[in-house]
Amino acid sequence: MEKRRPESTVTQPFAEKIISNVEKVVVGKRSEIELSLIAMLSGGHVLLEDVPGVGKTMMVRAIAKSLGADFKRIQFTPDLLPSDVTGVSVFNQQTMDFVFRKGPIMSNIVLADEINRTSPKTQAALLEALEEGSVTTDGETRELKRPFFVMATQNPIEYGGTYPLPEAQLDRFLFKFKIGYPSKREELEVLNRVEKRHPIEDLKEVLSLDELLNMQEEVLDVYVDETVKTYIINLVTNTRKHHAVYLGASPRASIALMKAGQAYAYMQGRDYVVPDDVKFLAPYALGHRVLLNSDAKLSNLTNERVIKDIVEQVTVPVKKEALK
C-alpha cells in the first residue's frame, strides 16, 4: 500500500481558506489540493495520472469556483483539432471580415481531460500555452488570461488508442501526481455529502483572481539561498548520472523545482526556501521528467523509486558549499 504523505503544514490564511473550501467537495485529498495550489502560485501546471472517478474533475472545478475563475473543460478525443483548443477565425458575412473565436484554452483554469487520447498534433497545440502563456493562430500571437492554470488528466490503465505524451510535453508540467482511492471512511463521507445535492453547486468564491495574481508576484520575492540552489542542481544532475536513467531531467526541471520551493515556502509563511522544501517537492517535480533505460524496466524499477533513491543519496546542505 502506498504510504500517505504527511499532513499539510500550510500556515497562510489564504491557503487554508482555499484548501478548506475545496475540501467541502473533495474528501480526504488535502495534500493533492495543496500541491495544486503550489503549482498555481508558481505559475506551473499539473498532470494527474489516475483512474476515472476518483475526483480529478471535481477538484479542479472546486478550485476554479473558490477563485471565481473562468473555467473550461476540454475533452480530448482522437478527432480533436488544434483549432478546437486554441480557437479559429471565421468569416463574418455582415462585416465581410474574419473574426477570431476564442478556444477553451483562453480561460483562467483549464481541465485538459484524458490528454493522451488526442493526436500528437493537437497535444502540441498546448506546448506554447503551457510554456509561454500564449497561443499563435493565423500567424498572430495572443496572450492568455492571467492567472492561467492547466490541470491535465490521463488514465494509467487504458493505453489502447492513446498517444503517450512526448518528453517535451511532460517537461511542461510542474508536477505529476495521483489522487488515489479514498478510504472506506472517506468514501462514506462522499456518499453522505452527495445524497441529496452535490456540494459543488453551493461552493462560494473565497479568494479573488486579483489577490491570487498579487500572491504570485509575492512568491517571486521568496529568497532562495545559493546552498539551496546548489542542492537543487545536485538533485537534477544526479538524474542524468543514475545507472537506471536513460534520459535525465533538463535545466527546466531545476527552474521548476526552485519556483515550486518558493511557492511552498510562501504557503508556510516563510520568505525563504529551506532544503526540506525541495526534498519534499522533488518526487512530484522530477518523477515524470526522467526516462528509464531498458535494464531498469526489466528490473521493474519505477520513476518514483529512482527519484527516491536520488533524493536519499544527495546530501542535504547545512552550510554553503561550492558547486561540485
From TrEMBL:
Signal peptide bounds: none
InterPro entries with a match to the protein in the record: AAA+_ATPase, ATPase_AAA-3, CbbQ/NirQ/NorQ/GpvN, ChlI/MoxR_AAA_lid, P-loop_NTPase
Pfam family name, one: AAA_lid_2
One Gene Ontology molecular-function label: ATP binding
Gene3D superfamilies, alphabetized: Magnesium chelatase subunit I, C-Terminal domain, P-loop containing nucleotide triphosphate hydrolases
Residue ranges annotated for the AAA+ ATPase domain, each copy included: 42-183
Protein name according to UniProt: AAA family ATPase
